[in-house]
Predict the 3D structure of the following.
Amino acid sequence: MDLLHGQLAEIVEADVAAEVDNVTTFGTLYRAVAEAAGRTTDLPDLGDVEPRPRLTEAWFCCAEPTDIQFASVAGSEPVA
């Protein structure tokens, strides 16, 4: 689980930095979790998912800060 957590965090951070849309990021995360569980990686039909409301404040995801968030507080570059 720790390894999977690290992989998912890397996917999210890279996609945020590359400004990848949320639906594409969700698909990438879904496939990573499915592969780790030894299941099919076909993304189910999500139907119409755009536009969808979302939180814009940074605080809602800070239960476990990312390297990007740590770096912004420390005033340095994120750990690669």
Observations:
- Residues 2-53 form one domain.
- The CA atoms of residues 15 and 24 lie 9 Å apart.
- Residues 2-17 form the longest helix (16 residues).
- The chain has a mean pLDDT of 79.
